[in-house]
Amino acid sequence: MLNIRQQLHLVHDLLGKAPIAELSSRDKTAVARFCREVPTVFAEEYGVALREVDKKVGAWKIYKL
């Protein structure tokens, strides 16, 4: 997650310094790749978080019995 957070800040800084039309082709490619990867990474992290919650809820149910 930290890597994605760092990338998000880099993209934010990059887009803050110049309009997208003025970015180099290398920077445009990097932004496009990042934009394609972000939803997948967040969905994966969300799934990990849900599994952790399920484990804790399941453990609580067992403990309560």
SSE blueprint:
Elements: H1 2-17, H2 25-64
Helix pairs in contact: 1-2
What oligomerization state is this entry in?
single chain
Structural class: mainly alpha
Q: What is the average of the pLDDT values?
A: 82
Whole-number radius of gyration?
A: 19 Å
Helicity level: over 70%
Tell me the major beta sheet.
none
SSE string? HH
User: Which shape, going by the Cα principal axes?
Assistant: rod-shaped
Count helical runs.
2
Q: What proportion strand?
A: under 5%
Question: Would you kindly provide a written description of the structure presented here, covering whatever features stand out?
Answer:
The chain is mostly helical and 65 residues long. The protein has one domain. 86% of the residues lie in helices and 0% in strands. The longest helix is centred in the last third of the chain and has 40 residues, at 25-64. It is rod-shaped. The two termini are 36 Å apart.
